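Job type: complex structure
Entries:
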Amino acid sequence: MSERPLVIAAPHPRTLEMIFTPDALARFRERYDILETTAGALEALPPDTLARARYLVGQPDLSDALLAAMTGLRAIVNVEGNFTDNMPYERCFERGIHVLVTSSVFAEPVAEIGLGMALSLHRQIAQADADFRRGDEVWGLDGNGSAQLLSSSRVGIVGFGDLGRCLNRLLAGFRAKVLVHDPWLPDSILADHGVEAVSLDALLSGADTVFVTASVTADNQHLFDADAFAAMKPGAAFVLLSRAGIVDFDAMREAAASGRIKVATDVFPDEPPAADDPVRSTPNMLLSAHRAGALTVAFQRMGDIVLDDLALMDRGLPPARARRAERETVRRMRSKPVSKS
Amino acid sequence: MSERPLVIAAPHPRTLEMIFTPDALARFRERYDILETTAGALEALPPDTLARARYLVGQPDLSDALLAAMTGLRAIVNVEGNFTDNMPYERCFERGIHVLVTSSVFAEPVAEIGLGMALSLHRQIAQADADFRRGDEVWGLDGNGSAQLLSSSRVGIVGFGDLGRCLNRLLAGFRAKVLVHDPWLPDSILADHGVEAVSLDALLSGADTVFVTASVTADNQHLFDADAFAAMKPGAAFVLLSRAGIVDFDAMREAAASGRIKVATDVFPDEPPAADDPVRSTPNMLLSAHRAGALTVAFQRMGDIVLDDLALMDRGLPPARARRAERETVRRMRSKPVSKS
Amino acid sequence: MSERPLVIAAPHPRTLEMIFTPDALARFRERYDILETTAGALEALPPDTLARARYLVGQPDLSDALLAAMTGLRAIVNVEGNFTDNMPYERCFERGIHVLVTSSVFAEPVAEIGLGMALSLHRQIAQADADFRRGDEVWGLDGNGSAQLLSSSRVGIVGFGDLGRCLNRLLAGFRAKVLVHDPWLPDSILADHGVEAVSLDALLSGADTVFVTASVTADNQHLFDADAFAAMKPGAAFVLLSRAGIVDFDAMREAAASGRIKVATDVFPDEPPAADDPVRSTPNMLLSAHRAGALTVAFQRMGDIVLDDLALMDRGLPPARARRAERETVRRMRSKPVSKS
Amino acid sequence: MSERPLVIAAPHPRTLEMIFTPDALARFRERYDILETTAGALEALPPDTLARARYLVGQPDLSDALLAAMTGLRAIVNVEGNFTDNMPYERCFERGIHVLVTSSVFAEPVAEIGLGMALSLHRQIAQADADFRRGDEVWGLDGNGSAQLLSSSRVGIVGFGDLGRCLNRLLAGFRAKVLVHDPWLPDSILADHGVEAVSLDALLSGADTVFVTASVTADNQHLFDADAFAAMKPGAAFVLLSRAGIVDFDAMREAAASGRIKVATDVFPDEPPAADDPVRSTPNMLLSAHRAGALTVAFQRMGDIVLDDLALMDRGLPPARARRAERETVRRMRSKPVSKS
């Protein structure tokens, strides 16, 4: 009988092959007994198997009874990216089971494309290429009427979690003034990152570029509406990187169509939008088909986090890489989980 | 009679209104007697006027005789951006006349668009927007087959003058390994900037992204030929930011067309290319109509440099902001000056 | 009857006047009902008072019964700096009571003096001043026989908590190679901070300067013994910033006395050491009377943390500034708490 | 007959063995014909030898005739560190002979000890060690009455050449507000380094720490007098790193003796001061016997600069590492050269 710790893996909609590199997966299989299963099949596992499980990798629906049966459980590691209301988190907190999520892997790819989108908007990189291919490009200074530099400009970041912090890091060389709005953090923490804490109004009216990185919560649906876009500086760029629910999408599209601001978005209320959705032909918009975070290399970093944090917990230490669910906020999230990766 | 120093201004193809903000121009006119003229009219100026000129702002053709007549001259400030073989530089050096150029103003706008182009190539930002508008966008992971992160990748910079250094600065937050090839600088200076000095071969075969920032000189025309592109890593990005003469343009276009590498270029052998030039329909290319540096805000920074350096020289101090022509290299440059801005 | 939340304050050995600036204390008193008390008097509080307490600021001995009586408690905030085995932490974790400590305030003052000590050792700043005052200073190059630069050298940091990270930040401008040993953290987290994870052996034999910032735990008492000092590079500096228990103090003193290494220490096994303790006359040592963290400004930052985190918890959000006790490690600490500040 | 270029070496008061590592010296001897000589013997060299010399490494007295005889000279490389009025610089400029100095090697060692001195003053590191050895140390908070943090404080730097810039770099991790006064540089260059250009008055009254790095010139002798010290913040630190001539030394000593400010100095009007000079017993002072720059490793970096820049000039390129003498300022310097290293 194996002496290796038991891991129950129910990673759907991910697969182990997706979240581990081949090398990392081999190490994972070497260190642990892995029982790969699905949410539906969990209930049917024998009680002693459930009792022996040290870790659950995945985010299956869990009943109170099922969690109670996993008497040796130390941690649940969500590899989808969002916490949803499908397990008894309070019981986990009481029992000292760590509830973890590996979503930090998306910060770097999303921040990079976000910065690329901002540069493309301010310098019309995509537009200029399309013009050139159609044969009506405009040369030199004449083609730069609305061009702006990011360097030494004012950049607003809404939400200062992994993604907002990564964006701030990527901006390090630009010497920009970074304004941040994050109601979940005290000003002092923002100051410690070298950014200025501001109200949402001050951010909207002050920033030449606005990056929206905040998750959708019960409190911020349609936070960015027509009034918000009207408050932005003329010619400013609005880059939506988190979820469509945080904006009034029609108002955003109209603000771009009017030419008042420039908009880039990776997310849409319905994905894909209909073939005749006006967003597909709106000028001053840069459209991306929910591709910002979905890089093979990002998913594979999830496995590294799993390996590192399980190794720490095996040694009786707390996990250090994955983000932990918080009692206070785990139920506030409103992001729809992805149905497929 | 005025006691203000005399500046002869012959800024063509720029104008004073272009290289100064209105405020800066007012200050310039307040501090100096400004005689605005053209290359052709210079010869006709009275000898005492020429003798009284302390500074020449511009890059007109200058004969030995004309320079000799400007007996009080302290500096010539080129506001076009390139030194050309149109004045007796040796005489200037002998006489201790500073020969200056304000081209550093272009570094930031060109570096920003270069970084934006690299991000666009690696994440297909422009391509994905065009696909979306045509209705055949690919969603999520499926759309990211060739996507690469700049973070923690290897970035090559060819040429480490103002532009290369600015690019390196913008990359600060990306934690990339920066490889630099610049035969005019010792390795120690590159190390001091935190980059690694490498041969051109090592740069081409090692970098995931290659930025070409080197000016064209007598020595490097067509430096990047078919062999160079073949030596690059598959899927790498090549971003041409300086002058078309440094590449074999057809070979570059073919390397992109073949899908082996991705290419972005701001410059072309003939500008504009013909309507039926194949470059206009080459895939894996990002096309920009010589727009990288030509921002109003960049030109206006020239005036700030002029004001700062003239103020220093007025006080008997050396200029500190504009770059100086070097005896050894001023005649090596082969960039065609712009005929209009 | 007050509607302000009730805070029980039992900050001994601190006082509220010590951990708050006058302004911050005024704000604290305005926002909360403050009941100042002592560990001994806690038991005597009426049950409804205990039940109404939302926060406990301080680190008094707490029995199970007392904690149970505080039914509305959201957080205990330790303002001494170390967790000791004087309260039922497990009950807190079960109930979701945050157990917090404000010790991060000491990181900056301790890191600064640590860096100052390292520079003083490598450049004999203190020694040279003493020589000068005695009239036997050695001038110029002759006085720099054992001098070393920190720039571009190899710096080892043992323990990478608040203090180790702050030291690494202060070193940013030195371009040093920073080697870190911290068995509680995966290599990936160290790499993310730009430092290299190494074994303790590799750190000792490779570093020109060793900073010890790790807390004393059950596992690391006398971690640095005669063998460890013998493994260090000749002429290297050893700077002890945490607790004396982590070193074999006699061995450390002898390593300095022998001239093989240079040593600075802020802590001693018995404080103060006896008047005739040989440490008081050991050469190649820099002695500091447990003064590294004890700055008025540091203590006062504790109050800012208290205010920020209580404000977050008042709004139903998790605390964000104070460090949390971890189930796994809270009982491993062996630091003696201070008896007075 | 050798085809290697001829270097005349007259490095007194340095020696080649002092300014080159053994490896670098071997490379130097391999690449060049080296003729080691002294100022006095130069005149006696045969005309064809003088005519063949491509480089002069050293700072010997040179007459017009001697310079004229060196018809092939490309550069004079000063390895003492200061330009003095002992050669016809104007002739060099006319002929396009580079006049170079390798003094940048001192920036790092001087900046490091300067930072160490500032930390020692603000935290009484040297004083506390002396107290401890005498048995009257003061423990903990009681011993920190006048302690100040450098982090987030205001730091003033007077003079922003190699040394001032290096200090600013070392301060990068401290998040200090850096105020700079340098009348030879426009504000824009200081802003580009992330520091704030201020008047000397604003610097003195605003800074918690003042570093003096400016060379002595005709204009700034005794720039820091009793009024200047009176204008400083009480408890501020004054760190003198350049030359004693820039301060009224008695006034500085008295300002320290009064306890109003803290002072560190590496330089003295007469070196060494007399045995009974009151400076030797002044409290609140940190004394260093002109040891700040005189590190073996610093001198040896001179040789690396020589090798790099000669290699560039051999290839017809301008030197890039050594600082160049400027026509406008070379004669303004008033530093006494060192008589011995």
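Summary: The two ends of chain A are 36 Å apart (CA to CA). Chain A touches chain D through two residues (CB under 8 Å).
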